[in-house]
Amino acid sequence: MADKPIRVLLVDDHQVVRRGLRTFLEVQDDIEVVGEAADGAEGVALAEELRPDVVLMDVKMPGMDGVEALKRLRELANPARVLIVTSFTEQRTVVPALRAGASGYVYKDIDPDALAGAIRSVHAGHVLLQPEVADALLSQDDTPSGTGRGSVLTEREREVLGLIADGRSNREIARALVLSEKTVKTHVSNILMKLDLSDRTQAALWAVRHGLTD
Predict the structure, then answer these.
(1) SS3 126
(2) How far apart are CA 120 and CA 132, in angstroms?
(3) Helices 91-99 & 131-138, crossing angle to 10 degrees?
């Protein structure tokens, strides 16, 4: 267990949902709920003030929704990793959220213990998608940035990209490939630049669509 608990911010317009999440998460020894927000704008403000490690965010909220909040957090270079927790399964909802910078996307009917595991996974640097979410992304008609550019990647970069798609953190990739974390970070930066992608989530999706996963 980590020395410091994972600091979590809850952003959902339904008070009963926030209360339920808080009640469950507060019994986890390694997770601390540091605040709650009822919409995206309040969530962004609290994320800047509280600097949580992970934000649990709904997509559909009055005022500023989850997608706009994600874009705003990215503009502010806020380091919090965002895990979307929502009841909306439509592709038109899933894709914009992930492209806006979400580190994971799960549904509100997720098992409580699985949710705690998802928080830990996202905090560790993994990209987390439920199978049906990945299927929705793979079935979309539009083509993400980077298409046709796989040939510019070195063999090592392709290995790193495949491990990103498997949900590995930089530390885990370094161990798997017997590299330093600094070297892995350099490879990740080069991959994003060469494929014209903005983050690890988009890189993972690109790898899945182009067959770089097992």
Answers:
(1) coil
(2) 21
(3) 90
> What pLDDT does residue 67 have?
92
Q: How far apart are CA 1 and CA 19, in angstroms?
A: 25
What is the chain's mean pLDDT, rounded?
84
Block residue for tokens 């899933």? 94
CA terminus-to-terminus distance, the chain: 30
* Model pLDDT for residues 173-192, shown as the tens digit of each residue: 999 999 999 999 999 988 88
The 8-class DSSP code of residue 5 comes to P
Residue 214 and residue 176 in contact, taking contact as beta carbons nearer than 8 Å = no
d(CA 127, CA 118): 10
d(CA 80, CA 99): 16
For 173, which DSSP code? H
Cβ within 8 Å of residue 10, ≥6 positions away: 18, 21, 22, 33, 35, 36, 37, 56
